[in-house]
Design goal:
Elements (H helix, E strand, L loop, with lengths): L2 H18 L4 H11 L4 H16 L1 H11 L10 H16 L5 H15 L4 H16 L9
Length: 142
């Protein structure tokens, strides 16, 4: 498994925990680092994903709500909601990461941690977010 995928897995676990038990990012991040061995570059990627997602939570939740037709954020499964938040953050802040990669990684996270239909739901919502933020599905990294 790639180091970026492992970093996203760690980020989703931290975001899930913070959604269930709100608190500061630092202690949650440090607790996970104790169990996950990864390169400094990957740790910084995790930190960026978690802190950036948490800092922009209201904006990301608005993007998700606009794209998740007839779904209230509070009714979404916790895993799905946080996979969507993470991917929406990456889609809007990491413009050098191809959108296909972001969506594919989110689908894989949903398959690994979510319910039976999570990957289908996540794919549909992220594609609408992609359109709403003006990202081209066929773009390549700059």
């Amino acid at each position: 498994m790639g180091s970026r995928r492992s970093a996203r897995e760690m980020a989703i676990q931290i975001l899930y925990g913070l959604d269930i038990n709100p608190g500061p990012v630092g202690p949650a991040f440090e607790e996970h680092l104790h169990w996950w061995k990864m390169a400094d570059e990957d740790r910084e990627f995790v930190r960026d994903l978690v802190e950036g997602t948490r800092e922009r939570l209201n904006e990301l939740d608005s993007l998700i709500t606009d794209a998740a037709l007839k779904w209230e954020l509070s009714r979404m499964a916790v895993v799905d909601r946080n996979v969507l938040r993470l991917a929406a953050y990456e889609m809007t802040e990491h413009e050098n990461t191809p959108v296909k990669v972001i969506i594919n990684e989110a689908i894989e996270l949903a398959k690994s941690f979510g319910g039976e239909d999570s990957s289908i739901f996540v794919n549909g919502v992220l594609d609408r977010i992609r359109v709403n933020v003006g990202r081209d599905i066929n773009e390549t990294a700059s």
